[in-house]
What does this fold into?
Amino acid sequence: MFIRLLKESFVRNPRRKLLTCVALVLGMAVATSTFTVAVDVSDQLAREFRSFGANLMVTPQGDTLPVEIGGVDYRPVTEGTYLSVSELPKLKSIFWRHNILGFTPFLDVPVSAAASSGNAAGTSFPVVLIGTWYEHSLVLEDGTSFSTGAFSTNPWWKVRGQWFAENSSQCVVGTALAEKYGIAIGDQLNVSAQSFHTSKPLTVSGIVSTGGAQDEAIICSLSTAQEVSGKAGQFRNLFVSALTKPEDAFSRRDPNSMTPTEFDRWYCTPYISSISRQIREVFPDTQVQPIRRIADTEGRVLSHVSLLLWIVTIAALIAAALAVAATSATTAMERRSEVGLMKALGATNLLVGGLFLSEQLFLAVVGGCVGFALGAGLARELGETVFGVPTSPRLIVLPIILAAAALIVMIGSWIPLYRAAHVRPAPILRGE
Amino acid sequence: MFKRLLWHLLNGNRVRLTVALLALTSGGAVVSALMNLEFDVNHRLAQEFRSFGANLVISAPSATGSRASSGLIDASVMQVVDPMGSSKVVASPDLYVVARAGSAPGRDVVVAGTWLDRIAQISPWWKISGSSSLSRGDLTHCLIGRNVSRNLDAIFGSIVTLRYGSRTTNLTVAGIIDAGGPEDNQIFANLPAVQTLAGDAGKIQLIQLSVAGSPDDIRAVQAKLQSALPNLSVKPVPQITEAEGTLLHRIRFLILSTGLLILVLTALCVLATMAALAMERRKDVGLMKALGGSMRKVLRIFLAEVGIMAFAGGILGYALGVLLSVWMGERVFGTRIAPRWEVLPATLFLMLIVAFAGALPLRLLGNVRPAVILRGE
It folds into this structure.
């Protein structure tokens, strides 16, 4: 009887059900998509912040003072200590290896350069030769290769022409330097380190603009700079771009004073401090420090922005809940005469209430499921447009959405149903 | 007559209209809070991004930072740049010199001459132990990076001897900088002290500016400075400005799309209410038509009803939205977000659009035939 009544209600009046269902589907789609995006947004924004460049710097321990202005080291080759390139694959073996998005070794060599062709032919000038990787594929310990270099740690570097090819005698010249001496793409430069008298011919493949002191330098592949400086297989400092979690009260504590459980928790959270420590574990003779200009600001802005977006999401969820509740209240109100009839025929309040609730719950489940599917699609689209990476649907959201849908329709139809339960059948049957 | 009918309609369907009003109010609240925040969020976020430090650099053309005297500019430029400064633009001059520090032979260290009183604004991420508030005219003190401190064994109160060519100067360490960057390897002193040491009296190398505002504001300041200083190059720091621009854009887009979704949802809720009302009012409409009311007149009454609800929902929503955005501002940015009056008409407008979109089912009433209704079918 109960089931039949329920079935009849859906078959007889599909249009009214459709309205509640559409409201549920849309409301739950909004809830699913905002929620899914919000869950991902911190990660996505953290990734977005990586376009500010590296946030960790690795330098040799016991190094002499770098004579560095605007990001270029002017120390002579003979001074200071070096790190070895062969150690670099270890960086992708630390606990948070997947959070290491890129790293770039730098070797700055003060050289004297002489142009041998083009407009600038015949001029010679002192300049810094920066050896680095632009897009280098590094073979890791597990045999896979990892593409890294300045494109990931210094994404704002722009080149006119071509970047230098790996293992070639090509170089790119900073815009300021190119302008000053009239160097053009295709020109030949002979560079030689002051302390190491072999000259190396380089072909200019592009003009680079960085906004820093690199605009007055020559950038070439690391191997070329190593050859010029006689420091085979070595580099001066390493810039690492790592995905991190914003610092909080816990991460600011000294790891040495933590209990073993706390230490494990700290170690297994991608704080910049725990990643630094893990890097130091694989490179024992180094100093690893966060580049605070980037890391600090990133942490603060990131936590503020994610809080903001969470509040917006919650506001959206509340508005969605109210809209759905209002719609289901409207449809429940329409059923007064039906309730009167049922009661006149002897139905108890319990039966009538149960009937309506099961109806609404059925709608909630159907609407919630369709809404989830729609919302997942919407979140995907939203992630794609905003961050260029589609947001993957999370199944964990489905039960939450279903429970929320059930709760909302129940709350929404509670008052009308309560009133309907107290309807006196006689006036209804008289058609009043 | 029109008014009386309207009053009866509003009064007679109180419960149902309350439901629609609730939806309009909640939608209006969230949307107006988002709009209120939207106006402010750029400004607030731009303020937050200022902790990245300088985003514009003024230097001699084709020279950025290397130690070549051709790259020097006259310090008097600061007199042009600085008055343009306000709370939104902070400028700081820089002159770098590689001097030898410590007892002979000493070691090379980069000495930067700047305005020490501007450090907290231009490089807010530095942690300075010791006295961080030095006046611009103090020529006897310096701040040293922590690596310098370690390398030279200099601590708070030590005297550091700097030599450049034949000139020497002695500075007392007033503080140690932990900057987590290249500044840890540098010594900072007031500009005149470094100018004297370098023998470049009245010269500076570059001016760093920290401009608060959207990428457009930064470009405007850049254009203004460039036209005031045609002989110098005014360039944005691409590392900061580019990334900042895309981030701001994305955050705004997220907030806007959420607002749009909420508007659609509100419209749907009004639609549901109105569809139900239209069904219920078939009898009333039939009667009105039978008594000679034209369809236009009848519809006008219903639309006025919707309009009143949208108006009420918009105003209530705006009031709630302002409260919500003030709370959000305090919670997120720790500052009060001032309510903006221009959000009120915008909210009312949006609510009207949403309500009228939701009132489309009222068109169904046009199909009502009086005879059928009067027969009681």
Observations:
- Residues 64-70 of chain B have pLDDT under 50 and may be disordered.
